[in-house]
Design goal:
Elements (H helix, E strand, L loop, with lengths): L1 E3 L4 E4 L2 E4 L4 E3 L15 E3 L2 H9 L1 E7 L4 H10 L5 E6 L8 H16 L3 E5 L3 H9 L16 H14 L4 E4 L7 H17 L4 E7 L5 E3 L2 E3 L5 H18 L14 E4 H6 L2 E2 L4 H13 L8 H6 L1 E7 L11 H16 L6 H15 L9 H4 L2 E2 L7 H11 L4 E3 L4
Parallel strand pairs: 3-15, 6-7, 6-9, 7-8, 10-15
Antiparallel strand pairs: 1-4, 1-5, 2-3, 8-17, 9-13, 10-13, 11-12, 14-16
The structure holds guanosine-5'-diphosphate-alpha-D-mannose (GDD).
Guanosine-5'-diphosphate-alpha-D-mannose binds next to strand 6, strand 7, helix 5 and helix 11.
Length: 401
């Protein structure tokens, strides 16, 4: 892969947010070096990418997706990666989860891939986390809460169990396996460029095509992304005093974290997880408040945003779903202790407009989008031992223990 070095970086305390980087070649061949001398382009050959992928887990959250799409996504993930599928699909009247397990088992045999699966609402998983004191992810019924973020955090705990250094997240409703393959390689390229152990790589889609008037429109930004990015940039501009548009990936579902960073972040529930990663990183490492992580402050945190060559084709889940996602993002920014009063007011107005069609009761957004504690509060060995012994839905393929 050949891509440019970051051309511009916005800095906030120990955090470096690199502007969007462009890919020049998806595959730049096997040999090292350039034909001519280059100081602006970084080249990764097969082996460099492959070495990073060996240390990477790809976490796939699934809830009631078409099995054909899940199959395609699995086929796009390079063989070196460990795949962790966390499902929240219904178990009755038809056991959709069992159908997913059957599909993965069959495919896994041909792919010879290392795959693990679990159901997010497995009662034993809830019991184990309760016993280990990790209540912030649990619902009142004692099981892990519903929600995409909750599934992703379960995936993180499992990736850590297999000693992975990097974790990437890929949605299971992607129509293009080749795009999935590109996302994973983008994650590897970002980590390969990082100068600190604490890094976040976020995919910026070149296009998110929509069908309008019976033809494909290659639009770049959806409404949710546009508004989320604008408000995250406003947060950053308000803190630094300099206007910026550096953030382009506020909602990026396809993103990756180095494990040392992933372990120390708080996560926000459901679809608010992606924008909240920015907020949490600013609060923890932006130099705004006293930090519990002096070592991380010393080494710095890097955020990469890399633009794909493949367009992003995924399932369209409708307007109400998009409004919910936008509300989650705005609430997350407004809830930040780094958010100045004026911006908070503007965010509240934007949320009120979204809620116009809904009830007029005042919503407690902290309750609606609860915060999940960092996974470094869960003792890894105990979690692994108990999960292997007790969780019935914890399935492993490809010779994994
Ligand atoms: N395990 C689990 N648990 N997975 C879930 C849950 C859940 O409760 N809810 C949804 N998922 C899975 C879906 O099956 C899909 O694979 C993925 O999470 C994303 O959910 P979608 O409902 O398809 O979201 P989207 O496509 O509208 O939005 C995606 O892209 C946005 C950026 O455009 C999400 O990744 C958003 O978080 C992201 O901001």
């Amino acid at each position: 892969m050949k891509l440019d070095f970051p051309r511009y970086t916005e800095r906030l305390g120990a955090v470096s947010i690199h502007a969007v980087q462009r890919i020049y070649e998806l595959d730049s061949g096997k040999s090292k070096g350039f034909l001519s001398s280059h100081q602006t382009i970084k080249k990764f050959d097969y082996d460099e990418i492959s070495n990073i992928l060996h240390d990477m887990a790809i976490i796939i959250p699934v809830k009631e997706e078409k099995l054909k799409l899940l199959e395609g996504v699995l086929s796009g993930i390079p063989n070196e990666c460990l795949v962790v599928i966390v499902s929240n699909s219904p178990r009755s009247p038809v056991d959709r989860f069992e159908m997913e397990v059957g599909t993965v088992r069959q495919l896994g045999r041909f792919m010879d891939k290392r795959l693990v699966m679990i159901h997010q609402r497995d009662p034993a998983l809830g019991d184990i986390l309760k016993k280990l004191g990790y209540d912030s992810i649990l619902a009142s019924d004692g099981k892990v809460r519903n929600g995409k973020a909750e599934g992703m955090v379960v995936g993180l705990l499992i990736a850590r169990m297999y000693q992975k250094d990097y974790v990437g997240f890929i949605d299971s409703d992607n129509y293009v396996p080749g795009a999935v393959n590109e996302y994973v390689k983008i994650f590897a390229a970002g980590f390969g460029m990082a100068t600190t152990p604490y890094s976040n790589v976020r995919v910026s889609w070149v296009f998110k095509p929509k069908v309008r008037n019976n033809s494909l429109q290659f639009s770049k930004w959806g409404r949710v992304s546009e508004i989320t990015n604008k408000n995250l940039n406003a947060l950053l501009s308000n803190i630094t005093g300099f206007e910026t548009e550096v953030i382009k990936t506020g909602n990026s579902g396809e993103h990756a974290l180095s494990m040392p960073l992933a372990e120390s972040l708080h996560y926000s529930s459901g679809y608010s997880i992606e924008p909240y990663e920015f907020v949490d990183v600013f609060e923890k490492f932006g130099g705004l408040f006293a930090s519990q992580y002096p070592k991380m402050i010393e080494k710095g945190v890097e955020i990469f945003q890399i633009e794909t060559r493949n367009p992003h084709f995924h399932e369209d889940k409708g307007r109400a779903h998009l409004n919910d996602m936008l509300e989650a993002a705005l609430a997350t920014i407004a809830g930040s202790k780094a958010c100045p009063a004026e911006l908070k007011e503007s965010l509240e107005e934007q949320m009120a407009q979204l809620a116009e069609t809904k009830s007029h009761r005042k919503t407690d957004y902290r309750k609606k989008y609860p915060i999940i504690e960092p996974i470094n509060t869960v003792p890894g060995d105990d979690f692994a031992k108990e999960l292997r012994e007790k969780a019935e839905t914890f399935s492993r393929f490809g010779g994994l223990r």
